Amino acid sequence: MLLPMAPTDSLFLLGESREHPMHVGGLAVFTPPEGASAADVRAMFDAALLGDQVATPFRKRARRSLTSLGQWGWDTLPHHEVDLEHHVRRDALPQPAGMTELMTLVSRLHGTLLDRSRPLWEMHLIEGLADGRYAIYTKIHHALADGASSMRLLRESMSEDPHRQNMPAPWQPHHRLTVVPAPTGGTDTQGGSTLPGLATLPGLATLPGLAWGAARAAVGEVAGLVPAAVETVDRARRGTGGALSLTAPHTLFNVPISGARHVAARSFPLERIRLLAKHADATINDIVLTMCAGTLRAYLHTRDALPDNPLIAMVPVSLRAPDTGTGDRTPGGNRVGVLMCNLATHLPDPAHRLETVRNCMNEGKAALQAMSPAQVLAMSALGAAPLGVEMFLGRRGPLRPPFNVVISNVAGPRTPLYWNGARLDTLYPLSIPTTGQALNITCTSSDDQIVFGLTGCRRTVPDLHPMLDHLDAELDLLETAVGL
Amino acid sequence: MLLPMAPTDSLFLLGESREHPMHVGGLAVFTPPEGASAADVRAMFDAALLGDQVATPFRKRARRSLTSLGQWGWDTLPHHEVDLEHHVRRDALPQPAGMTELMTLVSRLHGTLLDRSRPLWEMHLIEGLADGRYAIYTKIHHALADGASSMRLLRESMSEDPHRQNMPAPWQPHHRLTVVPAPTGGTDTQGGSTLPGLATLPGLATLPGLAWGAARAAVGEVAGLVPAAVETVDRARRGTGGALSLTAPHTLFNVPISGARHVAARSFPLERIRLLAKHADATINDIVLTMCAGTLRAYLHTRDALPDNPLIAMVPVSLRAPDTGTGDRTPGGNRVGVLMCNLATHLPDPAHRLETVRNCMNEGKAALQAMSPAQVLAMSALGAAPLGVEMFLGRRGPLRPPFNVVISNVAGPRTPLYWNGARLDTLYPLSIPTTGQALNITCTSSDDQIVFGLTGCRRTVPDLHPMLDHLDAELDLLETAVGL
């Protein structure tokens, strides 16, 4: 039976092309249990592959037919029709292998399209890391799950108990094995999160879809919207950013893209950033944004491509209502708004950049709070619409992009997680560049670190590695600036 | 500067989709030189990657623009703009690895699309075979090179001299290092080949393109064509096959396909097949076709899907004129015609199947010889047209396919070849399944063996491995049948 698909989800199928694969990805790196090796971890997955049960989300196939009048819907395949050999794949790294070789492989895997005649996911079991760890790259189509849902699927297949055994593989049906806190919502002004500096949200890639839905949802309140919108646009014109910006310069990131991808990632101790935020009277998210700001400035400057005007980042923030900050995941509670943040890339002093970012985010949040949730969503839809339209029509980007880069922060697990004793060390998020937005920065936090995941079009943003070093350098500079 | 692309070549770009990647592939397996290891072979390639020179065919990029009025053309990139890291990739096999693991990886690599914003090729250096050998999978878009051209590129980068050193990598410019005989033309009736049983030709995948050109070329002779065509069609209707067939039954191979691929291959000693051909008063090609016939019968029978009527194979044959059988490759000398061969899959006795195949091929060749070359090409175009139209329009196949499977034989190197001392053991050909033709069988011969390469749509022909065992069994049965 064909179950209906949300129109916003089907947009991710309709808008997909070889230049714009529409899947999100995650790279998980595991340390084998005490006394075991990567080969033992692989053996556990091999054993799981012999099972014939597949969890429902991994059996859903997108389909449209004459009887559905050409609309996309979901089939749920019987267990035995899921070709696990196709979905779960063994990969290996050329020797000797470190993170460079791993990222090279993942870059390639992230750039190829999923097979639409099957459930829209792949899981790659990757062996060969010289340090004895084991890696898993997962790829899920955005029509099936957004970044946050993917992360939830992963989290639910894991345990906080390092001694727990006989756990099913992520694609197998499982009952909740342990009470793992679901990601709490709340922007950093609400204090509902143990990572108060982070804007928790369901992943960047949800935005265009949500924006569409938001535009519809806001129709009833649209009369009250105009004054707020005008005020915000006005602030944007004054060059201070705010919820909506019209002043983003043209950069090398804002061009049409091709299909191949390049990914890079680096993690930093969360404590280091938390301390810096405290000294600077800023949020963790402000520090993350300022690190990105300095990195983009240095990257463009090296290439003689730094525009005179500051770059504008689109920053997704959670719109969870304050009274549901209990950790419950109520349907529809996971709505996302966007702020436009002035990254002050024209300023040479890191302290000045931090000040601009902090003020801009505070102003933007104040503006968001002055609006009703529906107004905020409509506002966000307004800001994101050019992205959506370009992406889905496959058109060349406008001469003046609505913003230069998306920087988002997805809350990861907040306690160490294990799968049959193997510890999840790091989870690297990989997202979706689009036409006009050739670079995406997605950050994930875990119990003790924060990972910056960069996903770029391999052609237009050819070398992401220098950005990792710039991130390092920017953190140092900021620490020096606040006297740490 | 945009150089024009032949319209037949641009069809391979226009007709491509995620379900129909239009590239050919080859898997070469090398034995390292005496005293060296696979790691040494890889080190030689790594060294070659440091060079910045790229041979012209590997710098050609397909492009179309407003100024070219939307027509596809070729750019030749400067050397430094070719991102070799993108094109030449290091891969590894999960351990322990044999041919199964190698074929699994190659199946996946063969099912993904090439990046159109770059020159249309990839080369994968694959390490990890337990027997110490080294594998290279090459993927070239059909618009850039057909199977035979790809094989020529490979051959020209190699030497007959096992002691030759300092040879450039296949993608690097090179002068002809040694006089390697180019593939000679000639159908097996012409005796111009050292493998007289093989129909040498430029690879199946050329056919639709050539058929198109042929249809145009034949316009001048079309008046004289009709009687020959009528006679051939008449013979086909009588069920004996011939140059054109209208009686192919519907089978599980003749359905729409999806994007993922499955490849499998097996090699047999050429001497064994040569001896069998001699005893059976048949050609090597007849034996190859009869082995395929028995294999298809057994495969379909096991699945309870054997049709009552015999399967029809489309068999490409070379149309090289007899007076150019010198081994010279004159432009345009590489034209291909097709015969339709009745595979007699309804007959339980292998000897009867061989008799039918042999008679059918002889009749077909006689019919081809009675026609002028242009008439033959037009005839072939007529036979192949339904394939071409379906493929390029992406439509569902007709209820009654023009034939059930393509079986082609591409002449490979006839002497042992070496690259910097590493011996090319086997070259596995991979081809292009299309809508309505979910299975392709391409054979390549080398100095002492013949390889059957099966390329199938992973969804519609889920398990190719049983076919390999059937090929084994059929060869045994045929030997028994002729008293060997």
Automatic annotation (TrEMBL), chains A, B:
InterPro entries, alphabetized: Acyl_transf_WS/DGAT, CAT-like_dom_sf, O-acyltransferase_WSD1-like, O-acyltransferase_WSD1_C, O-acyltransferase_WSD1_N
Record EC number: 2.3.1.20
Pfam families (alphabetical): WS_DGAT_C, WS_DGAT_cat
UniProt-listed SUPFAM superfamilies: CoA-dependent acyltransferases
Annotated family: Belongs to the long-chain O-acyltransferase family.
Species classification: Bacteria, Bacillati, Actinomycetota, Actinomycetes, Mycobacteriales
Domain O-acyltransferase WSD1-like N-terminal intervals: 5-288
Class in the EC hierarchy, top level: transferase
GO molecular function: diacylglycerol O-acyltransferase activity
GO term, biological process aspect, one: response to nitric oxide
O-acyltransferase WSD1 C-terminal domain boundaries: 333-478
Any Gene Ontology CC annotation: plasma membrane
Protein name (Swiss-Prot/TrEMBL): Diacylglycerol O-acyltransferase
NCBIfam families given in the database record: acyl_WS_DGAT
Substrates-to-products reaction catalysed: an acyl-CoA + a 1,2-diacyl-sn-glycerol = a triacyl-sn-glycerol + CoA
Record keywords, A-Z: Acyltransferase, Glycerol metabolism, Lipid biosynthesis, Lipid metabolism, Transferase
Pathway: Lipid metabolism; Glycerolipid metabolism; triacylglycerol biosynthesis
